[in-house]
Amino acid sequence: MVKISDIKVGQVIKNEFSQITRELLREYAKASGDTNPIHTSDEVAIKAGLKGIIAHGLFSFGFISKLFEDFLNQEEYGKLIDIDIEMRGMVRCGDTLVTEATVTKIEGKRVFFDVKQTTFTNVDIKDKNGKILKQFEAGERGYISEKDIERKLVKTKEVDGGTLTYRERVSMPGTAIIELYN
Amino acid sequence: MDNAEIKKNADFLIKNLGGKEIPGTAKVSIRYKTLVSFAEIYGITDPKYVGPEENGIVACHAFANHFTIKALYKLLLGMKLVQDGVERPFMLNVGKLLHGGQKYDWEGCVDVKPGDKLSITAKFGKVWVIEKTMVLFSEIEVLVKNQDDELVCKPLITAAVRPGGY
Description:
The complex is a heterodimer. Chain A is an alpha+beta fold. Chain A is 23% helix and 40% strand. Chain A has 5 helices and 7 strands; from the N terminus they run E-H-H-H-E-E-E-E-H-H-E-E. In chain A, strands 1, 2, 3, 4, 5, 6 and 7 form a 7-stranded antiparallel sheet that branches. The longest helix of chain A has 15 residues. The termini of chain A are close together. Chain B is of the alpha+beta class. In chain B, the strands form 2 sheets. In chain B, strands 1-5-6-7-4 form a 5-stranded antiparallel sheet. In chain B, strands 2-3 form a two-stranded antiparallel sheet. In chain B, a hairpin with a 5-residue loop joins strand 6 and strand 7. Chain B is elongated. Classes of the chains: A alpha+beta, B alpha+beta. Chains A and B meet through helix 1, helix 3 and strand 2 of A and helix 2, helix 4 and strand 4 of B.
């Protein structure tokens, strides 16, 4: 059970999703009614200057409300009052979404959060000589921009078999409020 | 579309859209299968959201995306304006439309259930342009009520339209 006395400023709750595929976005398009083809057709998205399909903004947003539903055990312990999010970055197939909410304030039974959804986009894996061993969609389609590099969003880390190049950026910052029952 | 036309259109929309009611009401009928299909996208397995129909379920919070998009498409994209004596749609190219932000306010709201008939109305809030990129932003304040006139959700959409789309 989650009670107001258990909540502390600075406490973090988190979820992660790494199965964004074209098929899932097609299913989402059907279920949500958002049939804008930039989310389901590479051809249309490329014509619109997007280099490939992008996830619906609200698709990614859904993982934020799910984070709070799970925290509140499907509203057994309280209610979700408000989510307010700015959508800054496009999310692509193959990306990993990490959603984190940090408690910033507690007033009565209300808990206020800063919310941050970070997108991790794999580009490629290279060996020690710089030879590409594996290229991901972002590498093939050129999703990473000069601006991403200038802003130091493109990073590397050692993984099995080589060095992974990836982009890490906050795609959705914002806030949320929940109200606990106890 | 050249830069002068983009600037002219941005100025027109900033001047004419702020605070304007969007004509019409979008209606959305809620079916059990729609709620379940939507929840399953997010891997939700709790019976509160995806249980048997006879037990009664409610919509997960993310389902607000469904009626928000209905509002965006049915109301916003159908909206017509008169510019220089000529009727024009708000959106000239839907491919240039992006979602700039989203707020959902559920304060004092009731759950959405199968069989509900939702009525959605909307009006424009602030409208502005980022001069550097000429991306036009507009807030759309939405009210969603059920068949009993109970408030279901108050979404605030921030639509972002890239140059050439407005």
